Every structure is written in structure tokens, then in C-alpha cells.
Amino acid sequence: MTKPDATQATQSVDDGSLERTSGSGRMEVNRHLMFDHLVLPEEGSPRECFEAVSRALRDRLARRWMHTQRTQDRENPKRVYYLSMEFLIGRTLTNNMINLGLDSTLHDGHLHLEHLAWQDIVEAEPDAGLGNGGLGRLAACFIESLATLQIPSMGYGLRYEYGIFRQSIENGFQIEQPDHWLRNPDPWEIARPRETAMVSVGCQFEWHDGKLRAVPGGCTHLLGVPYDRPVVGYGGQTINTLRLWGVGTPDYFDFGEFSSGDFVGAIVDRVVAESITRVLYPDDSTRAGQALRFVQEYFLVTCSLADILHRFRHSNEDWEQLPEKVAIQLNDTHPAMAVAELMRVLVDEANLGWKKAWELTVGTLAYTNHTLLPEALEKWPVQFFKMVCPRLLEITLEINRRFLAEVETRFPNDPVRLSRMSLIEDAGEQHIRMANLAIVGTHSTNGVAQIHSDLLRTRVVSDFAEMFPHRFNNKTNGVTPRRWLLSANPDLASLITESIGDAWIVDLSELRRLAPLAEDTAFRQDFLQTKQNAKQRFCTWLETTTGQQVNPTSIFDCQVKRIHEYKRQLLNILHVVVLYQRLRENPSATFPPRTFFFAGKAAPAYRLAKRIIKLINNVGQVINNDPVSAGRLQVVFLPNYNVSLAERLIPASDVSEQISTAGYEASGTSNMKFMMNGALTIGTRDGATIEMAQEAGEENFFLFGLTAEQVAESRPWYSPRWHYDNELETRAALDLIFSGHFNRDEPGIFEPIRETLLEQGDFYMHLADLSSYAATHQRLGEIYTDKDAWARAAILNVAHSGKFSSDRTIAEYASEIWNAVPCPIAHELKEGANDVKAQD
Questions:
Q1: Positive or negative, the Cα torsion across 14, 16, 18, 21?
Q2: Helix runs in 347-500, H state only
Q3: Tens digit of pLDDT for each residue in 483-492?
Q4: What mean pLDDT is predicted for residues 483-506?
Q5: How many degrees, rounded to 5, is the angle at CA 575 between CA 596 and CA 648?
Q6: Can you tell me the distance from the alpha carbon of 302 to that of 378, in angstroms, rounded to the nearest whole number?
Q7: Does the CA dihedral 350-355-360-366 come out positive or negative?
Q8: Choosing from 661, 669, 756, 809, which is the catalytic residue?
Q9: Pairing with 355, which of 228, 381, 589, 790 sits 20 to 30 Å away (CA)?
Q10: Where are the domains of the chain?
Q11: Which of 693, 691, 477, 659 is nearest to 557 (CA)?
């Protein structure tokens, strides 16, 4: 697939005069301050100035955005539509300026206001609360790469008023607070009320005993109101769209009800509507929370498909052309209802026969699986379908009937197989298995790392792989180098560009040209200096914002990801206690000082994960203040982990912790960001870490522990008690934790962790890997003291990180799943740019 040239891309932006007309740019910012906020430029607050700068920049890119849309409409290429419940896009201003080639503006003062530093303006932008973890960040990287590769595409998600939650730590405990990221107007979004979609919910709602209750029968109509955000490809040649659906109600208000005193009854539909997109991931530990999540998914799918098919019909009269003009990617099972909804439209509205409708549905839809955890494969109660979307239930049951007849033909007299493969789970309350629906109703099912795809095919859904072997494939994840290296780590990015040129920005495989420089003494020194600069910047920021002080010369050892047992933050903190115990027993023991950074959120209903956060913080409180370990070991839990924090921490990191139980991590993407920024990985042979080690050489990684095969084989006989009884350091660490040493005033608080590890089988095998993990960390510390050896390995990691660009991943999706090609619009930019200049 053709990649844009980095230099030409920047030049094309210069043609648009976005940078050269700095005086005009300043005037536009001042105009927005005065007319939007009614303040003088020299009196604008950081937030007001952020909005003014963003709106001025959006004004400038609007013509290019329109050019992209009109060119794609005229050329009528195949378009890619990416459906995801999450888009963890982070902040937008700086990223858009860099992708438009305006990064010099950040330094030369073109858009600065004299009374504020540029960083004050940047910090006034909140992280968009549209995602939680790797799934959403992957979606954000993917839509940026789609625009950079000039592939016609749109992302579809929900416009959550609140993010998942804002995390704070009080007395070591996670506290969840509202994340009202849309408290202020978002200057990047544009409401499109003329393109509103109608969604029918197959029940009505009423207030009963002070609670909102669904009532079977009738129908409630909701409106999906689209809000569009620009997705700027590097160089600004293509600006695609991320469309987020907000929810509203038809303009109906029962004045008589309200006047008679029934205030709630008059506005009940509006209350229902506002609840749907209020928060990302409602608490699914309750039936009400599960129902809300189900309605969110239904709302996303219905609105998005209505919009997609409207766009298709605008340029194409023949439904037969649907798979040739439309590719819809389902990001995990959350949008899997698209299978039934597309069938509904084709059968009920387009009046196609079932066979033809099914052929078009399967040919249009593709599915990405993101988990090997059976409990994470969504299953929805049949009752939810009956209540909310009964027609989709009828269609799903018919899909299942026809599919099982096909299975029976292929594998006769095998009722157990039929039960496993059925879309309906009959044990107890009936559920619809959404992963089964997604596999049956699409032409492609891909995993996101080679080991994940292999295990998915051979273990998790092996029956389906046997039935549809041609549908299964792998697409190893990637991350965008524009945000995660060019923007996040300007010192390292500059060093790379000075050494090999800037082609790496759009072709990350160019980083291989750094490999010979690993043997260059001067380059190693410069490389280490960029790392030290990043560490010092992080320390300064941390002290300024939180008051915490850390040693910038210590090893920065980082584990930043969602808190979950299989990701094994617990293994990490157990090892920290092992190191602490060594110092208690031998205070003269020598090893390089280490700072262990943890960050990540635990789901509000995940009690054990929240208890692990408490343990990390309590251990840190003791170790950081014990004279025997102070200055040598430090534990820091960074609250409210988000994209902006990652952009600060990852460039400063020396060690990346990727220590999931082998066979449980689908891919990981933080591991790629760390590698790209010169951190060395200590990890299990799991997810994409395996492929990273293959690229850079295992001698430049710190791999340890059981393999996925060994984990599976040892299940029948694994005994955590054996490790406690036979490994002295394991027993000493556990005894110290459960003696109350870290919770003297909170007796018994870590009992659930003790039970998990020693009484309930240690399912994720923390104790099985602890000794191997500690020994590998010992080797890591020894190599760190040899700066040349460490720098050489880190440079080789950067040099071999090119495979893990989201550009490569998207190019593979485009050629192997979507059959989509670029639709260049650069030839029209000059005319449009001159128009912009004339306006200036």
C-alpha cells in the first residue's frame, strides 16, 4: 500500500498557509476569544484560550475536511466503517497540529498568547472520556492510520457524557468519581442534527417506586444525533471523520401531564434517553447495569448501520454492490448485533430474500476478537432481546436454526458439538452468545497477535475454525508512531530524524537503519541522554502536580494497564516485597535503585482488583518510608491513568512490565509503545511480546515464566502451596504481607488475596512464576549497571519496533480483509489551500 512521503506531506500543509500566515492565525485566535467568550485576548483563561486555538485550527482544516468528504463521494470508492464502543483518543489539539505539520508553531510562538505558556493551553484540554484501555486506544490508533494511509473510512462510537470514571486514591483505596469531560463545550465536535437517526426500542418506560422501569409492549422512539470529529492523517492530505452518537428524543412534551403535576411522567422519555450515553461501561454487576449496556450496544449498531446504508444508497442503487462498496469492522463483540440488524434492513426494508441478504451480510461484515477469557465473550439474556429489539431476536433465532442445520449436515450425530456451536446458550436462563453470532455472520474473524489467533482457533472457538477455516486470520496490533513517538518523545524523535531522516514517521520499518548505530559510542550516549531528559521532565511534572518526588537516576520500572488478575500486578508487587525482604535481611545488599510505577483502573465491581490496588499502595507507603529501603526502592501508584499520563511516562520508562499469565493476553499495545520509546521488556511469552522478541532478538528481552502450553498442561496438578512450602523467598514475602506488616491498623484486609493465592488455587499462577520472575529481574539489574550494554539493547528494540506500527496493521486489514484502497485527495489540496489563503 502506498505510504505518504513525510517531507511532501509537510510541504502540502505549508501550501495551505496554515503555518506561514501566523499573523492571521493570531487574529483568528483573538477573534474566537472575543466573540465566543467575550474576553480580551490578554485576559483569556487557559480553558478559553484552548477553545479559541482549537476553533481557529478547526476553521483552517475545515476546507480540507470537506474536500476529503466530497472527493470520496465523487470517486465512490469502497469505504471502511469501524464500529467500536470505545475510542480512547486522548487530547486532540497537539496531535492535530503535528499531523498538519504545525509542530514548529508549538515552539516559535505563532499561536501563543503572551500571558500564557503553550503548555498551559494544552493542559486545559481534558482527555476525551470515550474509552478505557487497550481496545479503545487501538481504535484511536487505527482511525489515525486509516487517514494517514488515505483510506476512505469513518469511525462510529457513542458520545459518552462521562468517561468510565475519574480515579483517585484515598488511604490506598480506589475511589471512583464522575469524569465529566464534556462539562465545557468540545471545540472539535460538530453536531449534525440534519443526519439524525431514529431508533425504536420495543418497550415503554415508567417510574415505579422512585425507579425507572421498562414495561413490555408499545414502543419508545429515540434519536441518534451525530457529532463529528475530524481525524487528521499525517500531512493533512486526508481528514476522515469519527462520528459519535448522542441520544435525544423526538420533540414531544406533554404539557397537560406537566401542568397536572406529573412532572416526571412528562419527561420520562428524555430521562431514558439521557441515561443511555451518560457513562462508558455502566456497572454490569447488576441487572439494570447489564440492561443499560445492552441498550448502548443496540443504539450504536442501529444508528451506525442506518447512516452507513444511507451513504451507500446515496451513490449505489444496486444492493448487490454492498460488499464491493462497504466494509464494516466489528471491534470485539460489542457491535455484534450488526449481523441481525443488517439482515433486518436487507430483508424487511430492501425486500431481499433471506439467502441473498445473508450473502451480502457475511460479505460486508468482519469481526475482530480481543480476548481469550471465556467470561469476556459477551452473552446477552434472550429476555433483553425480547424487551428491546424483538425483531432482532426473531432474526437471530432464524440464523441459528439455519446454521445448526448446516452444522448437522457437516457433523452428523454430534449433539454436543451442536450445543457448543449454537448461538443460544440454554443452561439456566437463555442467552445469546454474541461471539458465536459474530463469527457466523461475518466473512473474517481475526485475532490481534499470532499466539492469540492460534489459541483462538485451536482452543476458544475451535469448532468454528473447523467449520470455517478460511475465515480465521491474524492481524497483529500496532500503535501510531505519530502520537507515541513523534509527539510523546520529541527528543528521541529528533535524534532519530537527525540520524536517518524523517521517512520513519510514515514508514516505521525505516527504524531498522538505527541498528548499526547501536555500536556507535556517541549515538549510545545521545540516546541515553534523551532518556534521561524524559525522566527528568517526568519527575518535574510529577512533583509539580502531585508533590511526589522520585529519583530520576533510578530504574523506572512501569506496569501501566487495566488492573486485572491475569495481567498480574499482584506478581509485580510480590516481587517488590521480595526485594524489600532481601534488604531487611541484608541491608548491605547492592542493586541499582528502582522506582516501580503502577497505574490503571479496576472495574468498580471487581473487588479483588481493587484490593490489589490497596496492597500496592500500602506496600509503597511502608517501603518508601522505611530507612532500610528509602532511596533504593520506591513504589508509586499514579492515579487516573489516561492517554496524557501515558504520553509523559512511557518516554521516561526504562523497563516495561508485560507479565500476564501466558495464554491470556490477546496482544497488548502498551508493550509496543514502550519498545518504540527505548524501554526494555520483562515479560512472559504472551500476546505480541513474543513477536516483539522475535523482531529484536530474545537476547534483548527479559523473558521468564511458563509458556501458554505449560500453563494449560499444569492446570490439573498445579499447587501454589508447593511453592509456598519449597521456595524460601516466596514464603518469606507472603508471610510478611499476611503478618500485617503492611496493614497494622487494618487487620485482615488482605485476606481475600491470601485466599486467592493459597486456598483457591492461584488460577493465574502468580506463585508458579515468582521465582523465575525474581531471577530475571536480578539479571536485568545487573545489565542496567552496564550503560553501554543497556543502551545497545534499548536501541535495538527501537530499531526493530517498525512492525508494530498501526500503519502496517491497517495496510494488512485493507488488503487481506476489506479489499480497500487509498483515495488520494492531495491533487485537490492546492486549489483548496489557495482559497484558504485568499480568505486569510
A1: positive
A2: 354-364, 382-388, 390-410, 415-421, 434-440, 450-455, 462-467, 481, 490-500
A3: 999 999 999 9
A4: 97
A5: 20
A6: 18
A7: positive
A8: 669
A9: 381
A10: 6-73+80-476+813-833, 549-784
A11: 659
Provide the CB-side half-sphere exposure for 751 (13 A, CA). Answer: 4
Predicted confidence band at 256 (pLDDT cuts at 50, 70, 90)? low
State yes or no: is 669 an active-site residue.
yes
Q: Annotated catalytic, 562?
A: yes
E strands in 503-577: 555-560
Cell of 291: 440492561
pLDDT of 838 strictly over 80: no
Burial class (CB in 10 A: 0-12, 13-18, 19+), 289: middle
Cβ neighbours, 10 Å, residue 698: 12
Instruction: Name the superfamily (CATH) of residues 549-784.
Output: Glycogen Phosphorylase B; (3.40.50.2000)
Query: Facing residues of 155 across strands?
Result: 82, 242
The three grid cell numbers given for residue 85, joined into one nine-digit string: 464502543
Annotated catalytic residue within 433, 567, 610, 685: 567
CATH fold match for the domains 6-73+80-476+813-833 and 549-784? yes
Residue 8 has pLDDT above 60, yes or no: no
What pTM did the predictor assign? 0.94
pLDDT at 18: 43
Query: Could you give the CA distance from residue 25 to residue 56 in angstroms, rounded to a whole number?
Result: 7
Q: Which of 137, 562, 575, 611 is catalytic?
A: 562
Candidates 673, 723, 792, 803; catalytic one: 673
E strand or H helix at 682, and its extent?
Answer: strand 680-683
What is the per-residue pLDDT for 273? 77
Please tell me the distance from the alpha carbon of residue 91 to that of residue 483, in angstroms, as a whole number: 10
User: What are the cell numbers at 71?
Assistant: 472527493
The pLDDT tens digits of the residues spanning 645-680 come to 999 999 999 999 999 999 999 999 999 999 999 999
Cell of 298: 443496540
DSSP states of 734-762 as a string?
HHHHHTTTT-TTSTTTTHHHHIIIIIS--
Q: Tell me which residue of 685, 599, 671 sits closest to 642, measured CA to CA.
A: 599
Higher-confidence position of 248 and 752: 752
Local structure of residue 763 (DSSP, 8 states)? T
Q: Please state the CATH superfamily assignment of the domain spanning residues 6-73+80-476+813-833 in this structure.
A: Glycogen Phosphorylase B; (3.40.50.2000)
